[in-house]
Amino acid sequence: MGKTITIENLQAWYGDQLTLKGISMHLDANMATAIIGPSGCGKSTFIRCLNRLHETAAGAKVKGDVRLADQDVYAMDPVDVRRTIGMVFQKPNPFPTMSIYDNVAVGLRLSGIRGKYELHSRVEKSLQMAALWDEVKDRLHKPAVALSGGQQQRLCIARALAVEPEVLLMDEPASALDPISTLRVEELVEQLKTSYTIVIVTHNMQQAARVADKTAFFLNGELVEFAPTTTVFTKPTDKRTEDYITGRFG
Amino acid sequence: MQQRHTFDVALRELKLKLLNMGGDVQEAIRKAIEALVKFDFDIAKQVVDGDRKVNLQDHEIEDLSIRLIATQQPVAGDLRKIVAAMRISTDLERMADNAVDIAKMVLRMNNGQALIKPLIDIPKMGEMVDEMISDALNAYIDNDAELALKLAKSDDLVDRLYRNVLTELFQLAGERPETISQAMSLSFVGRHLERIGDHATNIGESVIYIISGERSDLN
User: Fold this and answer.
1) Count of domains forming chain A
2) In Å, how far are A202, B93, B130, B173 from B193, measured between CA atoms?
3) Between chains, do A233 and B3 touch, taking CB under 8 Å as contact?
């Protein structure tokens, strides 16, 4: 099951530049939350703070609280954080020299799972959850790079799911995909949120409207509005949200 | 910075089409009442024939709205404007149907019998609903929630007058059985005008929906 994430006064810097200016939000468990906003508004930085990826950038700094249920994310081992809070990136990034199978199994092997039977069953389960199993079950040991872009992205999702995270962060997961692959990823989000808490950053407003239960609008490093998706897309309360989602700026 | 010029032009076009349709519907209602008061069957025929144009306007507004939804993926205020435009168009089309029904009633009354009584309250109802339509369209043009809310009061007055009309006609029909047929026709005219008032309040509700996203009940 997914866990809640509570963010309190989160600030993030790149060098001297304050990119997130004190974000506070509560993300419900087993729900998809979309983060929208114009380029440079801090939405990617925000989700990179949730799994402590932001601090790996040169000159980057974070202040504030991020709690996964009752655990302080910034008091945890960063490796554990990234296992518990998985991430899928904009461009599919399977390990190019590995097979489909090994791409999913690698995280499991690194976490100490060696048994062939357990490995295989976890790989199959992850590929099934990522809605990829039927397409690859007969060629598991072929190179992952031979898959289409959409399949590669679902493979990356399977790779993230294999280590049994509680939260899945998705940074524009469908922006490099064709419309059919995009719809498959969106369908997948719909299914996955029964088991995981999902945070999805997207430039595609219709995608946010389709997949997210709640939507947050970021602007210049601030959270402008955070409400049920239907409310945001039918009657947003802040004029800046209205102007952005109706395409009047951004 | 203006980034959705084409879309904004299309939204303005939608508004203009609705206002033109509203003007034509008002004209149809005025003519229907004129036909009744003057017992002028040519004017009544004009109202019946004019309905085709209003139906066409309704279809055009619906087509444009569907096209905008399909191609522009409207959200928030834009989406509410388009959804409300479709509803307003439907209300206007129904008002035109009511005008046609009044005109047809006049044509059916063309049986040599003179008017059973001087018409005072029915033309008055006609004026009141005409003003309600003007208020509804003005509220739509100006995004004026206050004016839209005022329609609820106007509708109450129309309803009250309609009840008076009915009481008077029933009384007349009871006293003079030869007037029953025309009294029924005139009460139907009153009913159509009362319905037109209801549609005007529906437009007021659509205006409030555009402005606030909230549903209201002005009837």
Assistant:
1) 1
2) 52, 14, 10, 21
3) no
